[in-house]
Amino acid sequence: MTRARATGARGGETPLARYNAKRDFSATAEPEGRVGRKRAKALAFIVQKHWASRLHYDFRLELDGVMLSWAVPKGPSYDPAVKHMAVRVEDHPVSYNRFEGEIPKGHYGAGKVIVWDRGTWTPAGVPRQGLEAGKLVFDLHGEKLAGRWELVRTGKPGDRQERWLLLKKRDAWARPESEYDVVTALPDSVVETPLGLVEEREPHGAVPAATPAGSDLSAAVKAAFPRTLEPQLATLATGVPAEGRWIVENKFDGYRLLVRLQAGKARLITRNGNDWTDRLTALAEELGRLGVARAWLDGEIVVLDEQGVPNFNRLQDAIDGPANRDILLYLFDLPFLGDRDLRRVPLESRRAALRELLQGHGGERVRFSEDLPAPPSQVLQAACRLGLEGVMLKRADSPYVGRRTDTWLKLKCQRRQEFVVVGFTDRTNAPQEVGALLLGYHDEGGRLRHAGAVGTGWSNAQGRELHERLVALEVPKPPVHAEAPPPSRRGGPARGRERWVRPEVVVEVAFGEWTPDGHIRHASFRGLRADKPARAIVREEGVPAAALPKAPKVGKAGKGAAAPAIKVSHPERVIDASTGLTKLDLVRYYESVAERMLPHLRRRPVAFVRAPQGIAGQLFFQKHAEAKFRGLTELDASLWPGHAPLLAVDTAEALVAAAQMNVVELHTWNSTARSIDKPDRVVFDLDPGEGVPWAQLQEAALLTRTMLEELGLRSWLKTSGGKGLHVVVPLAARATDERVKAFAHAVTDHMARTIPQRFVAKSGAANRVGRIFIDYLRNGHGQTTAAAFSARARPGLGVSMPVAWEQLGELKGGAQWTVQTARDHLSFESADPWADYWTTRQALPRWPGKG
Question: Where is the composition biased (Pro residues) (predicted)?
Answer without folding.
Answer: 477-488
